[in-house]
Amino acid sequence: NGGDCTDAFTLDFPANGAHFVNLELRDHAGKLLSRNFYWHARDEHQLQQLNALPQVAVKGKWHLKHSANGPVIEGRITNGAKTPAIQVRLTLRDRKSGARILPAYYDDNYYCLLPGESRNFKIEFRSTEQKPEIGLDGWNIEPSTLR
Fold first, then answer.
1. Cis peptide before 143 (omega within 30 of 0)
2. Of 2, 16, 53, 106, which has the fewest beta carbons less than 10 angstroms from its beta carbon?
3. Beta carbons of 133 and 95 less than 8 angstroms apart
């Protein structure tokens, strides 16, 4: 079938509570090849514990570049809290009106940041007269605007 499977380990979850699992696959040089973040509970009612997560203030910076295909925003966000930031969502908006700038192509979105973790992001969009800003929110994230 073109691929091999190898059992690497078995996760033994505790009987109670919601738990997070961050799985990363890296090559021999340490380059990240794949990342998957999961939340797990033995019973769906235990997942309601996620609603009690403290709010997290995610910080970020970005800059605008121009490519042959149009404008590109490159930036970095960081979770400086001691709690995971769940379902981080970036939204490209017009600074003046607050309307979404569409179409916009994100290299990633709706992801989780562990405590102290940072992640780079890229947003491509079409040339426009609008001045961009980025809305930042998520499951347990204090909504903010990156300017």
1. no
2. 2
3. yes
Q: Give the sign of the dihedral formed by CA 99, CA 105, CA 107, CA 109.
A: positive
Q: Nearest 10 degrees: CA dihedral of 42, 23, 136, 81?
A: 80
CA distance 97 to 93: 8
The DSSP output letter for 130 is S
Q: How far apart (Å, rounded) are the C-alpha atoms in residues 87 and 136?
A: 10
Determine if residue 98 is left, alpha or beta; phi over 0 gives left, psi from -120 to 50 gives alpha, anything else beta.
left
Q: Please state the length of the chain.
A: 147
- Say how far apart CA 84 and CA 113 lie, in whole Å: 6
Half-sphere exposure of 87 (CA within 13 A, CB side): 10
Start-to-end CA distance of the chain, whole Å, equals 48
Helix/strand/coil for 4: coil
Compute the average pLDDT of residues 107-122: 96
User: What are the pLDDT digits (tens) for 52-88?
Assistant: 999 999 999 999 999 888 999 999 999 999 999 999 9
